Amino acid sequence: MIVNQDKCTGCGTCVMDCPLGAVRLKRKKAVIDEHCTECGACRRVCPEEAITAADMMRLEGLQCDACPIRCWIKEGFIGACQRYRHEAGRLVRVAPLHAFRQVEPTVGSDPSEAIRRPLITGLGAGTTYPDCKPAPFIVKGRRQDVDVVTVVTEAPLSYSGIMVKIDTDIHIGAEGAEILAGKRCIGRVTTEQYGSKMLSIGGVNQLTGKNGMVVARTIVDIANGKAVKLNIDGGSRLEIQVGRPPVIDGETPANMRVGCGSATMGLFAPLLKEAADEVVVLDSHLTGLMSEHAAGRFVGAKTSGVKLKFRQSTPGRYFGDHGPGWGGTSIVRPQDIISGVDLTVARPGMRVLVTETTGTQGALFEVEAGGALREVPLTDACRQALAAIRESCEPSLVSALYMGGAGGSARAGVTRYPIELTRAVHRGQAVLTVGGAPVFILPGGGINFMVDVQRVKTNFFYWTPTPATICPIEYTMEQIDYERMGGHIHAMRPFEALEPLFLKG
Q1: Are 238 and 189 in contact (CB under 8 A)?
Q2: Beta bridge partners of 402
Q3: Fewer CB within 10 Å, N side or C side of the chain?
Q4: How far apart are the C-alpha atoms of 241 and 226, rounded to whole Å?
Q5: What is the per-residue pLDDT across 295-330, written as a single tens digit (0 to 9) for each?
């Protein structure tokens, strides 16, 4: 990279953002040393546009193709990601490939098979309250020649909420926007995950706030698979139900995106090259431009002279925006993504296909002599490429993770020494399940868990006007470990003697 010393103000932004520490300030001006790989990070963040790329014809080393950055790595140096080193004319992965035995001590062991599933579930068990009394059912049985204990309760949890995942690229509202049930706030839009919008509803501060009752009810309704109507402040009207497609502003999207615009380009480049001279895949995260994209170059796409309105990330990859248009962007008319056509490169009659990441929309344009774009009918090759994208998409669905913090009665009902239960759960000596379903235990202190509500029998989440949600919980462990942690042995009963009781319902 080359620094224009006249433009440089010495702000230091490039110094902070260089992944290799190759930039420093000297006499209040940026200076770039020999570690530079032309990754372009400094150029992209410079507020004064004082940094430009070096002449590629004069660059030393090998060009890496492990990512879109395509670093130039000199002999003996590493790339911007610090994964590859140039050694004797070849790029070598810095860290060696690992067999499982090399990571097994870090991964840790799984709980023994005998305790992975509860003897009974907390469904219909009743609640432990107050904290000082044993759980409603403490059951012992024998499994795989091991004496096993399961402790069950329906735990009232103020520290609880639900994370809702909506598989769609449709823009539903700004990150951080309030989620409203009626006119009352119950949570916020968080961020996007791969092809999905994420809603965070509840949490202890929401539950104990002025809208706590409706918060608790909404969490439970979603967890129990009921249809729920919500509004995003400044955004969309939602009708969501776990296991079903979402309804967004009265419309039901069929598919979630196959990937971002760049990934779509990489997946379908051979088909897209046959469909048109240039292809734009619109996406709110990364919009792809075939002629510049690594996948386009790989399949032999030629420079087209087509310029996009969005801001470039790396060659052929442009940061999109959010809006009601194609691919969840602001582009309502597909031709509006094109800011211009360089007629020194483009030719009249050249065809440009614009689509998005679900393949449900597509438009084909022909470049006229003056550089204008004229829409023409989709060709068979275009329809084939769009169908391939569309058929590779998964259906748009709503899913949810219930999250809770199991303290108080949820632990004291198990043992006289609650800290020992917490330690046993984190060590894998005691297994927490919800209605028999496996959970993920968050690392760190406490017993914080997440469970896929679709794996829990319907209508066994409840709420109480404290307000709190009520969740069926089971702890299963070997009897010897239960005795060691000060479990309520006097309240333990054989499972075989009680089995007919449980089978009635």
Answers
A1: no
A2: 162, 451
A3: C
A4: 6
A5: 999 999 999 999 999 999 999 999 999 999 999 999
Residue 145 CB coordination number (10 Å): 6
Cα separation, 10 vs 31, in Å, equals 10
Structure tokens at 166: 């909506």
Sort strands 90-93 and 178-181 into parallel, antiparallel or unpaired.
unpaired
Fill in the amino acid letter for 437.
Answer: A
If you average pLDDT over every residue of the chain, what do you get? 93
Residue 119 contacts by C-beta under 8 Å, 6 or more apart in sequence? 139, 140, 141, 143, 148, 149, 150, 476, 495
Q: What six digits make up the tokens of 29?
A: 């001006």
**How far from the centroid of its chain's Cα atoms is residue 116's Cα?**
27
Using DSSP's 3-state secondary structure scheme, residue 141 falls into strand
Residue 111 is which amino acid?
P
Counted residue by residue, the chain has a size of: 505
Omega prior to 130 cis, within 30 of 0? yes
| Per-residue pLDDT tens over the stretch 344-373 | 999 899 999 999 999 999 999 999 988 899
> What tokens were used for 30?
């940026």
What's the DSSP call for residue 150? E
Q: How far apart are CA 410 and CA 422, in angstroms?
A: 11
Helix (H, G, I), strand (E, B) or coil at 255: strand
Alpha-carbon distance of 52 to 375, in angstroms, equals: 37
What pTM, to 2 d.p., does this model score?
0.89
DSSP state at residue 126: -
Q: Which residues pair with 356 in a beta bridge?
A: 282
- Reduced to 3 states (helix: H, G, I; strand: E, B; else coil), residue 229 is strand
369 and 379 Cβ atoms separated by less than 8 Å: no
CATH for 2-93 is 3.30.70.20
Residues of each domain in the chain carrying CATH 3.30.70.20: 2-93
Beta bridge partners of 317: 288, 314
